[in-house]
Write a structure and sequence with these properties.
The structure is a single chain. The chain has 2 domains: about 120 residues, 3-Layer(aba) Sandwich (Leucine Aminopeptidase, subunit E, domain 1), CATH 3.40.220; about 325 residues, Aminopeptidase. It contains 15 helices and 21 strands. It is elongated. It starts with a strand and ends in a 6-residue tail after the last helix. Bound molecules: ligand BES, manganese (II) ion and zinc ion. Manganese (II) ion binds next to loops.
């Protein structure tokens, strides 16, 4: 999409089919739109009144101007003192309403907050059409932002939206079309020319390296597992971050098989991996001065005849042993290996993302992620990044007294705890593999999949986590890690 800045609302109006006008409560029109609104006269006023439009965040009202440029004005409420996500959502509402129009303009970025506006607009027009014989892609090809400057900011918005869209595509891809090695190929293709170094570990490598968790989960599948290792090493960097994403390309539950209903959405169980890889691409394109290692352990979880059986014991990358009592608690097994491997590279901090537990969905519902970890200042930063990114999360505890739920006489730990607090016992298992490194874990079982179309979200894979990770790394680039603020 072509994104341009135009100085005046008047110029935008003369070029666009649809014009989105941002308004605050009391109908305070953003930028220089007041005069134009007055020229629309009583008809527009009445339309706003009938729609109950007052400029509150989330409100919108479309009005047919009766002329050609623009043929439609969309009033977009941002609320008082709009947050980045108020703008992102309003832009999403505009993007949906204007998806049939080639040229759209808006005053939403008048104050220079172009990145969230561009993100919201582009993401609202996302669709996954690969298997539709009559695809209906959005037709907008030009977005005019009223106001001056912030070109760089708008480019960042495009980069982030493209990374989120890439992650959504991968998550929405049916499991049969994304075998682990195929994902690896898609990653190689996507990162070409971005200055990222891709190393992949095939089965022989994983055996040699002692990745017993990943191999144990992969044992029941005919499709080979692999570990994707992506490096971003800019010339200048003071901070080294490791990102790890759960990449279960299909979670049948393994021999502890899931019921049909629960299995239906399990192609999305690689959303953590998709988020990490998408974020790496954006971080590289934005040339953020932070060193980043991205790891994505990729495998199916299937009940084939060689599958890991309940009662089997796996030896992981750092030598710790895990008794597998439920093969459906597989995410922690592959993350154990990947986290241990990340630790070996000595990062300053680590973040993992995983569609890890149904329990986290029970606790927080389907739009809020759980965040846990061993370092409150890191969790704080991630919460702030999430807020800016419009990705909701809530800090859950890692209670030491629950660790004993993982005790077993057979091994160093078992892979399931008791009936309650499943998101926490899963994270406590991960903690066994992070050593002393500041670490945060995001359980994205809920928000990785959006259940309906709304503002910039579309039903299906959401790409949740990409924006928070990019925001976090941008923040680390500016402020470093370990400095007290
Ligand atoms: N991938 C699932 C978690 C999940 C559930 C993600 C629903 C998204 C939506 C995970 O591998 C799993 O099966 N977890 C089990 C753990 C249990 C066996 C301890 C669960 O949550 O039921
Ligand atoms: Mn599972
Ligand atoms: Zn899973």
């Amino acid at each position: 999409m072509n994104i341009e800045f135009v100085e005046t609302q008047k110029e935008a109006a003369s070029r666009a089919g649809v014009l989105g006008l941002a308004a605050r409560p009391g109908l305070v029109w953003e930028g220089d739109a007041g005069g134009y609104v007055a020229s629309l006269g009583a008809g527009f006023e009445r339309a706003l009144e009938r729609a109950g439009f007052e400029g509150e965040a989330g409100q919108s009202c479309s009005y047919d101007t009766g002329s050609e440029h623009p043929h439609t004005v969309v009033a977009l409420g941002t609320g008082e003192d709009p947050s980045a996500d108020d703008r992102r959502r309003a832009a999403g509402i505009l993007g949906r309403k204007a998806s049939k129009d080639a040229s759209v303009a808006t005053t939403l970025a008048f104050e220079g907050q172009a990145a969230p506006v561009v993100e919201g607009f582009l993401l609202s027009q996302y669709s996954y059409d690969r298997f539709r014989s009559k695809p209906e892609p959005a037709r907008t090809d030009s977005l005019l932002l009223v106001g001056t400057g912030a070109e760089l900011d708008s480019e960042a918005g495009t980069v982030v939206a493209e990374a989120v869209s890439w992650a959504r595509d991968l998550v929405n891809t049916p499991a049969r079309d994304k075998a682990p090695r195929e994902v690896q190929r898609l990653v190689a293709e996507m990162v070409e020319g971005l200055g990222l170094r891709l190393e992949t570990h095939d089965v022989a490598d994983l055996e040699e390296g002692g990745f017993g968790g990943l191999l144990g989960v992969a044992a029941g599948s005919d499709r080979d597992p692999c570990l994707v290792e992506l490096w971003y090493e800019p010339e200048e960097s003071e901070t080294f971050v490791a990102l790890v994403g759960k990449g279960i390309t299909f979670d049948s539950g393994g021999l502890s098989i899931k019921p049909a209903q629960a299995m239906a959405t399990m192609k999305t169980d690689m959303s953590g991996a998709a988020a990490v890889i998408g974020a790496m691409a954006a971080i590289a394109r934005l040339r953020l001065p932070v060193k980043v290692l991205g790891l994505a352990p990729l495998t199916d979880n299937m009940p084939g005849s060689r599958a890991t059986k309940p009662g089997d014991v796996l030896t992981t990358r750092n030598g710790k042993t895990i008794e597998v009592l439920n093969t459906d608690a597989e995410g922690r097994l592959i993350l154990a290996d990947a986290l241990a491997y990340a630790v070996e590279h000595g990062p300053d901090l680590m973040v993992d993302l995983a569609t890890l537990t149904g329990a986290c969905k029970v606790a927080l519902g389907d739009t809020i992620a759980g965040v846990m970890g061993n370092d409150d200042s890191l969790i704080d930063r991630i919460e702030r990044a999430g807020e800016q990114a419009g990705e909701s999360m809530w800090h859950l505890p890692l209670p030491e007294e629950y660790r004993r739920q993982l005790d077993t006489p057979m091994a160093d730990m078992k892979n399931i705890g008791g009936r309650w607090g499943g998101a926490l016992t899963a994270a406590l298992l991960l903690q066994e593999f992070v050593g002393d490194i500041p670490w945060a874990h995001l359980d994205i079982a809920g928000p990785a999949r959006w259940t309906r179309d709304e503002h910039y979200q579309t039903k299906g894979g959401s790409g949740f986590g990409v924006r928070t990770l990019v925001e976090l790394v941008a923040n680390l680039a500016e402020q470093g890690f370990g400095t007290t603020e």
